[in-house]
Amino acid sequence: MTDSRPASILTQADALLRKNLVFQKRNIWSNVRLVTIPFFLCLLLVVIQLLFDSQFNEDHGQCGCLNEKTCGLRYSTSDQAAFCAIPNPSQWTPLLQIPSPQYRAATTLYLSLSSPVTFLFTGNNQSLGETLMRNMYSNSPEFGGDLANYVLGSSSLPAYTNYMDSSFISDLPIYNIKHKCSPNSSFSILIHQPPLSFPKEITCVRGLNLWRNSTFDVNKELFKGYRKGNQEEKINEYTAAFDFQNTNGSRLNVNVWYNSTYKNNTVIRPMALIRVPRLVNLASNAYLEFLKGSQTKILFEYIKEMPKPETKLTLDITSLIGPLFFTWVILLLFPVILTTLVYEKQQRLRIMMKMHGLGDAPYWIVSYTYFVLVSILYMLCFAVFGSAIGLNFFRLNDYSIQLVFFLISINLQISVAFLVSAMFSDVKTATVIAYIYVFGTGLLGIFLFQFFLEDPHFPREWIIAMELYPGFSLYRGLYELSQSAFAADYRGVNGMRWRDLGDGMKEVTCIMLIEWLLLLVSAFYIDQITYSSKHPLFFFLQTPSKKKQHHYSNKQISKFVVEMEKPDVCQEREKVEQYLLESTENCAVLCNNLKKVYSGKDGNPQKLAVRGLSLALPQGECFGMLGPNGAGKTSFINMMTGIIKPSSGSAFVQGLDILTDMDRIYTTTGVCPQHDLLWDKLSGREHLLFYGRLKNLQGSVLTQAVEESLRSVNLFHGGNGDKQIRRYSGGMKRRLSVAISLIGNPKVVYMDEPSTGLDPASRKSLWDVVKRAKRKGSIILTTHSMEEAEVLCDRLGIFVNGSLQCIGNPKELKGRYGGSYVLTMTTSEEHEQEVEKLVHSFSKNAKKIYRTLGTQKFELPRKETKIAEVFQAVEKAKKMFPVVAWGLADTTLEDVFVKVAQTS
Fold first, then answer.
1. I want to staple 614 with a disulfide (CB 3.0 to 4.6 A). Which of 7, 271, 403, 576 is the partner?
2. What residue spans define the domains of the chain?
3. Pairing relationship of beta strands 847-852 and 196-211 according to DSSP bridges
């Protein structure tokens, strides 16, 4: 015996979990390909690190060797300077940063000359400012003394250390800035760097001072045309600018503008040094000379680095570019989860599970838990493999921090997928959008969001606002972990630990945790009001009592005036009203004035799919719904199964209201939809096991029920029951859909055109199954086969234009709407008139209903027609003219259907 109680939440969850595991087992190679993606990206990072090490982290020859054959130099190139021991760094003369030739400012608006060294200055006192600017560099033509006495500059790019100054070892000249250059102003100096000595040419260049009235004018001039290459005003870059503000004889107050562009011209961190100290020294010396005379100076002789031992540069390049790759790796789960959810929605598999008793709670719990477990397994493989191949991102940071962060991030990602799935109904569209989200997030993260993170002047509030986007919050967390790993590897210490967890990591973790909870609740709420068609305030509405019975008084029953309603339909309506007065539980299905109106779109009028249907279906009856395409039969079944809500009216299944008790109704019903809703990669047996468990079948009872179902629809032999659905023919899928609707012996079964696409033998076998099933429950069946309707249905209703036109058993309908014989006679065309006169001789009210090429068909009223007279008249006609063929038949159900459909 089967258990008549509905399946518990645990039983439903177990059924769904088993189905998911079998589905993933069949999808094993897709899962393997998915898992190999992070492996591939991790290996790619290792290859990039090895290539970087071979180019930057390994010495290019021994320290102190100019090449493989000649040694003896302590350090000879800028490459070796970063690695070799430097116990006594050189003393490099401080320089100014001179614009490169292609960037220098033109001064054609003020002078006929232009200079590579142009200074702007302003202040409250122009004359004092001009004096100070003149004092900045000497006009003496002779060379002598220390280089600190000269104002030197270079257009070479600054280095990131002062161990090897690029200005002295490059081919670019060093400029000596003077008021005026004489023919003998240039000179050569000897750069002595033991054991090397080499000459360096010092070229004289005129310094040009330009007054501006205010800081606003200075800013405007500095920015105007800056590196834009305008033909009228050449590219506008100045050496520096000074604002002497309120400087006077007792106070020096100066602001210095300098070009910080050059500090970003290196890809090696920290950023390049900028040549600013000499500018400050020039302003100080100019003011000192103004006060004390030209003999008083503060000499700025040299800039020198600290001594350093021999080092090996170890830069973890994989940590620098890791956030991009790791963001892609984690987000690759998003399209998988989203497409799974949308696939069930597109194929209507979830509503199929719901109609067979799967509640919302088990679906959400199992689906969410299943995605979490798959994601955890995916991330564990990713982290373990990354650690095994030596990625510092995983090795140096605390594993517990990574575990917490990854756990929160995958939960947030799953919540986003559930929320976004409500917006899509097509898998292809969802897949495209999901991958745009994946790769777009990574690229925007590294090229936009990271730029804002590293800008100390960017408002922190805007950073938090951007992190509300889940992709950026994930990127921020990965960025913090990567920076910790990079710094730890560079310094030779541990990475991120709980005791020194940065503010950025705390901030993004809190944001992700709060977003996860909010999005999960939002996703469940939207699912309930869209997919489960619940009221938007269902959280606050009281759930109807399970023991509530529906009784109606005469005042509660609304009377409807239906124009030209047939007596049998009126009688059915009265029967419904009587059941409503007594108890709705006395009928398997009870519909009271059920209506469905679809709103018009694009200027089209409203569509009345079901117009006030009243129907009472007793226990154990098979009711057949006949009607042309578009008559509203499927809309009626969709309302009864909860797919759509009725516009008005009420309906009850086993005494339960379809508007409030649909979840309980599903546990006692079975559905064979018009289209087969099946998983391609599951077998027929696995489908029946899943739906059998939803009907609370267990153990040997479940196994026996599945085998009997397979046998009843001819899917047991030949291993057909264990084949995947994708290998089934259309007829086999249809038979399986019927078996699914009947497993567990449901009290009410809806079958929407169950025999479509079946061969005659399979159709006959299916009829036997339905006949046995209606002994245990009630069946509502729609069909276009009149033969099927006569064989299976106890009562029939013909549905036309959304309304019930007639109802009764097949014999009653044929007697009521047939009531005639059909005479067919074929002769030559010239004798058609004679045939018509012959027919009217024995049936005055005969009606011609068909004529073509000598063949005529007449409808003869049964009351005035005697079969013997028809035979006698035909025999008489054969003697008068040739009769090719003739026949007399009783009215068929098909004739009744056509007649009702045409006259309605």
1. 576
2. 9-45+315-530, 78-292, 813-903
3. unpaired
CA distance 890 to 904: 23
Closest CA to 849 of 858, 839, 841, 840: 858
The CA-atom distances, in angstroms, between 66 and each of 76, 325, 816, 902 are: 6, 39, 114, 104
DSSP 709: H
Alpha-helical segments (H) within 808-852: 810-813, 832-842
pLDDT band at 268 (very low <50, low <70, confident <90, very high): very low
| 402: exposed, middle or buried (Cβ count in 10 Å: 0-12, 13-18, 19+) | buried
Q: Is pLDDT above 80 for 126?
A: yes
- DSSP structure class, residue 202: E
Q: Which amino acid is at 783?
A: T
Long-range contact set of residues 123-128: C-beta below 8 Å, sequence gap at least 24: 123/242, 123/243, 123/244, 123/245, 123/246, 123/247, 124/244, 124/245, 124/246, 124/247, 125/244, 125/247, 125/248, 126/211, 128/244, 128/247, 128/248, 128/290
Give the number of other CB atoms < 10 A from CB of residue 811.
Answer: 11
**What is the pLDDT of the chain when averaged over all its residues?**
82
Q: Are 835 and 880 in contact (CB under 8 A)?
A: no
Number of alpha carbons in the 13 Å side-chain half-sphere of residue 152: 26
Q: How is residue 556 annotated by DSSP?
A: T
pLDDT of residue 541: 58
Buried b (16+ CB within 10 A) or exposed e, 48-67: ebeebeeebbeeeeebebee
In the three-class reduction of DSSP (H, G, I as helix; E, B as strand; rest coil), residue 850 is classed as strand
Q: What angle do CA 385, 390, 391 make, to 5 degrees?
A: 80
Whole-angstrom Cα distance, residue 150 to residue 93? 10
CATH fold group of domain 813-903:
Alpha-Beta Plaits (3.30.70)
Record the tokens describing residue 89, joined without a space: 């760094």
Mean pLDDT is lowest, of 102-106, 565-569, 649-653, 876-880, for 102-106
Say which residue the tokens 């019927």 belong to: 738
Largest CA-CA distance found in the chain, in angstroms, rounded: 153
Residue whose pair of structure tokens reads 């006077």 in the numeric block = 248
The rounded distance, in Å, linking the Cα atoms of 64 and 706 is 83
How far is Cα 153 from Cα 429, in angstroms, rounded to an integer? Answer: 60
Q: Which residue has the tokens 């081919």?
A: 171
- Residues contacting 222, CB < 8 A, separation 6+: 120, 236, 238, 241, 257
CB contact set of 815 (below 8 Å; sequence gap of 6+): none
Confidence of residue 127 (pLDDT cuts 50, 70, 90): very high
pLDDT of residue 810: 81
Q: 805: closest CA among 603, 627, 589, 546?
A: 627
pLDDT at residue 178 is higher than 80: yes
Q: What pLDDT score does 304 carry?
A: 86
Q: Given a cut of 80, is residue 38 above it in pLDDT?
A: yes
Radius of gyration of the chain (CA): 46
Q: Residue 287 — very low, low, confident or very high, per pLDDT cuts 50/70/90? A: very high
* CB neighbours of residue 223 within 10 Å: 9
Nearby residues of 514 by Cβ (< 8 Å), 6 or more positions away: none
Question: Taking 80 as the threshold, does the pLDDT of residue 10 lie above it?
Answer: yes
Summarize the confidence of residues 476-503 as an average pLDDT.
Answer: 85
For position 537, what pLDDT does the model report?
67
Check if the beta carbon of residue 746 is closer than 8 Å to that of residue 670.
yes
CA angle 469, 470, 475 (to 5 degrees): 100
Beta sheet of 883-890, edge-to-edge order: 847-852, 855-861, 820-827, 883-890
Q: What are phi and psi of 83, to 5 degrees?
A: -115, -35
DSSP sequence for 385-445: HHHHTT-HHHHTS-HHHHHHHHHHHHHHHHHHHHHHHTT---HHHHHHHHHHHHHHHHHHI
pLDDT reported for residue 83? 67
- pTM metric for this prediction: 0.69
